[in-house]
Each structure stands twice: as structure tokens, then as C-alpha cells.
Amino acid sequence: MQPPHHCFLCLLFLYLLFLSGTWADLEGTFTIRLLQTSIFQNTSFVDTEGLGLLEDIKLGSLDKHTWTIHFYQPWVHPALPRSDWDTIENMIKIYLQKFNHLINEGAMEKDVSYPFVAQCMGGCKLYPNRTSRAFAYVGYNGQDFLSFDVDNGTWFPSQDTYLSRYVQAVLQNYTAFSELVAVLFNDTCVDDMEMFLRYGKAALERQEAPVATVFARTPRPDQLLLVCRVTGFYPRPISVAWLRDGQEVPPGPALNTSTILPNADLTYQFRSILAVAPGDGHSYACRVSHRSLGTRSLLIPWGNSEMVLIAGLGAGLLAAVAMAAIMMLWVQRRRKHQQMEESESRNSILSKEA
């Protein structure tokens, strides 16, 4: 393998130094991730896909045929001048050409069998105090392969194999490349991200309140599964807990939670399942906390059919009492109004007679 062309790296470095902007007034920590997946079918054909993410918002993807950028959000393209996007696309094409050449060269030198998959992920996490943490990882055939320590400017193998040690040694010899990666993410990441934070503020501040339901399943006679289904919320972070007689149920084998999954409308869903013994005499409720709710929480109780019936009867009685009270008040006011009209009428007649 030969080192990447220094001119390309210098152009990339100089370009990113000119990326600057005003930090949008946003709270929280934000992460930009650049993802690349290259499938090397043979020495002459490589299928490459690329994706850029700001948090979970897709900024753009790479057309694998033309290596041009396809924008997903209407505010991404206006964040930079057209000439800058043209420069980025040209750099991407140069990078991919050299990346494919170097990988193929190393694969043939070390007799790596085709096909294989190389994956790269790089980016940085920006904290509210304007500090950042950079990261870069390389994967091989779906497994962690190498990681980059930005503070020390060194590559570390994620698995101790002959191939990983060889690639590590090659990258360590690319001192200009390693130094560029460190400077790129440590010194220019804030400027790079601020542009998108400013233009994408509305998308990042979007909030959708969760909708929660509680229902029960009976997998066997001696077990009852209480299911709390929460859906339609955004952003992704959410807190769901079960309460037994008003006290939070601690983690344990009876509590099972799913991963947070995406919905088709760019919101998320989540399930929490609690196993209980039928008729144990306790009351249960699902509590949901989310940023869209502010300081409030959703509290969805669960009860058996008798409890639901009693609650229904109680609600019906309360409604009937309230309706009766309203009717009585209306009748009293109506009678008082009629009495006043009759009194005024009698006074009018007496005054005329006088």
C-alpha cells in the first residue's frame, strides 16, 4: 500500500477550516456521523454506499453510481454555497478512488479472498460547553476491526489478527493522515457542525408527544404479562417505568423492555413488559416521561375487569350526579327569573292604576 496523496488531504483540511457558522441556540449534545460501506466484489468492482447523519436525522446519502450527494432535508443544501458542495463531491470522488485502490492493493498483497466488506464510521460529538470528542472506526466483514485514538493519534486493532496488525501498521505509517484526522475532528468539528445546527434547528427541536396504552396477555394460567406500548414520540430518548402500588418496579427478571424502534413517520415506539401473578392484589401503572411532556408524565393504570367495571360505574354515578346538580341549578334560576318578571309586571300595573 502507498500513502494517500498529500495534496488531496491538504485540500480537505483547508476546505474544512473555512467551514464556520454561528451555533444555534440549542441545548444538549449533538453527534455527526459519516458512514461508508464498500463491498469489494473483486479487484475491478466495488459497490459503495455513504450516509451522513446529524443525530438521527439523515442529512444526505451518496449515489453509488455517480458518487454525488443526494440531500434528504431541504435545509442541508442551503447551509453551504453551491461551490462548496461541488468541492465536497469532488473530494469524495478522489477519496473513494484512492480508498478502493489502496484496499485492493493491500488485499492482493495479503491474499485476502473476495468478496469482502469494508465499513468506516467517523464523526464527532459536540457538547454544550463547545468541547467535542472525535471518533473513527473501521470494520471488516461486519466486525470491529480498527479504532482511532484522536488524543494520541494512534490506531488500535479491535481484534488481534495478522490482517488487523498489518492494516494498523500501514495506517500508523500514514502520519500525515493520522495527524489530519486528529486536527480535523478536534479543531474543526465545532465549525463543521454549527452550520447544520443553525440551519437544522427546527428539525432538531421537533417534539412529538408519546401515546401510551396498557394491555395484558396470558401466556399461561399462572402468569400475566402487562404490556405498556408507547409510540409516536420524538426525539428518541424516553423513560418508561412500571409502578406497583405507587412504587417503581426495579429491574429484574420480571421486567422486559424492547429496544427503541423507528416508525414510518419518523417517530419512535417502545414496549415494556412486566410479568405478574394473576390476582396478586397489587395495583399497577405505566409511567412515561419524555421531553415533549416537560415536567409532566403520562400515568396509565392497569386493572382487571372488575376494577374497570367499578371505575366505569363510579364515573357513571359521578356524571349522573353532576347532571342532576346542573339541572337543579337551572330550574332554580329559571323559577327565580320568572318570579322577578311577574313581580315587575305587577308593579307596572299598580303604577299605571295609580
Describe the structure.
With 354 residues, this protein is α+β, with helices and mostly antiparallel strands. The protein folds into two domains: 6-205, Murine Class I Major Histocompatibility Complex, H2-DB, Chain A, domain 1, CATH 3.30.500.10; 211-306, Immunoglobulin-like (Sandwich), CATH 2.60.40.10. It contains seven helices and 17 strands. The chain has helices spanning 6-17, 82-109, 162-173, 175-187, 189-199, 201-205, 305-353; strands spanning 30-42, 45-54, 57-62, 69-71, 116-126, 132-140, 143-149, 154-157, 211-220, 223-233, 239-244, 247-248, 255-257, 261-262, 268-276, 284-289, 298-302. The protein is elongated. Residues 1-24 and 304-318 have low confidence and may be disordered.
Question: What's the arrangement of secondary structure elements?
Answer:
Elements: H1 6-17, E1 30-42, E2 45-54, E3 57-62, E4 69-71, H2 82-109, E5 116-126, E6 132-140, E7 143-149, E8 154-157, H3 162-173, H4 175-187, H5 189-199, H6 201-205, E9 211-220, E10 223-233, E11 239-244, E12 247-248, E13 255-257, E14 261-262, E15 268-276, E16 284-289, E17 298-302, H7 305-353
Antiparallel strand pairs: 1-2, 1-5, 2-3, 3-4, 5-6, 6-7, 7-8, 9-10, 10-15, 11-12, 11-16, 13-15, 14-15, 16-17
Helix pairs in contact: 1-2, 1-4
Which range best describes the helical content: under 10%, 10-25%, 25-40%, 40-55%, 55-70% or over 70%?
Answer: 25-40%
The CATH topology of the largest domain is Murine Class I Major Histocompatibility Complex, H2-DB, Chain A, domain 1
CATH superfamily of the largest domain: MHC class I-like antigen recognition-like
Point out poorly predicted stretches.
Answer: 1-24, 304-318
Widest sheet: strand ordering: 4-3-2-1-5-6-7-8
State the major sheet: 8 strands, antiparallel
| Overall pLDDT | 80
CATH class of the largest domain: Alpha Beta
Q: Which outline best applies? A: elongated
- Per CATH, the architecture of the largest domain is 2-Layer Sandwich
Total number of helical segments?
Answer: 7
Q: Give the topology string: H per helix, E per strand.
A: HEEEEHEEEEHHHHEEEEEEEEEH
Structural class: alpha+beta
Report the strand count: 17
Radius of gyration: 33 Å
Strand percentage, roughly? 25-35%
What is the end-to-end distance? Answer: 123 Å
